[in-house]
Amino acid sequence: MDKPRIAILGGRGMLGSDLASVSREQGFDPILFDLPGFDITNADHVRQAVSRAGMIVNCAAYTNVDGAESEPEWAFQVNAEAVGRLGAIVREAGKWLMHISTDFVFDGKSDQPYVETDSAHPINTYGKSKLAGEELLAESGCRYCIMRVEWTYGLAGNNFVTKLLQRARAGNALKVVDDQVGSPTATLEVSKTICELLKSQPEDLFHFAAAGYVSRYDMAKCIVNKLSMDVDVAPCKTSDFPSPATRPLNSRFDCSKISRLLSEPIKHWQEPLERFLGQL
Ligand SMILES: NC(=O)c1ccc[n+]([C@@H]2O[C@H](COP(=O)([O-])OP(=O)(O)OC[C@H]3O[C@@H](n4cnc5c(N)ncnc54)[C@H](OP(=O)(O)O)[C@@H]3O)[C@@H](O)[C@H]2O)c1
What we know:
alpha/beta
């Protein structure tokens, strides 16, 4: 029997590349589309990609959170307009789309973990562009699922873990914010979850993150301890580090909704993080 074919848009990014290997291991036939040969803002490229597979997973995005403040048009073209157009093309083709979104659609002011029905109020341009993408996708009328993820890290990208280790290895003392709280989430775990959903093709909105919550500061201490690094980690506040884009302080997700669909409990954040550190 032919393997189910999936088109992974943004297939060479941090999430896309893990999804490619995990989906292949799980018996899918992934085809990867990414810059420079594939541009999600080009309707012909998107039409061609959608025609090649029964299911489409959109991991392509403008992900430079600070850069989006000075390049808002570019962020909106990739994260919003292109996603709406992708939805229209998927609808015409009668296929199903999994789209990846972010905790940055929230302002982080709630004192509770966010559920899918909470109102979104993004506080930076990247978050606004991603929320606009979700809305345009909903208007497109295609069959789709949105999975919001947060604090992701993987082997194929620059992320909090790799940046922290670069600074630590350069011998710098580390100051890390203790007022941003979330769930460090391995793109390998996100990929496994996407593969489970590919089998049932739900049409819904889900939050997915590793289980448990931690501050960036405690996460940094955990990494340094696990690697037995001789480096000082000191706590500080987000306000000590002015950056072009404001960050939400509370990134906690309530993942009960997606948990009910999964065959295994979601792993606590420490276990995949330790495995990841062992691979570096
Ligand atoms: N990283 C996080 O902490 C995080 C948190 C929450 C949600 N997310 C979401 O997770 C998804 C995957 O992101 P990621 O972490 O894997 O980021 P990533 O490594 O930056 O991957 C995004 C991919 O999209 C590609 N891309 C950018 N513009 C494109 C265009 N016009 N046409 C085609 N491809 C384009 C990028 O190519 P280039 O590298 O060449 O630009 C890259 O390969 C995104 O939807 C992101 O918003 C990420």
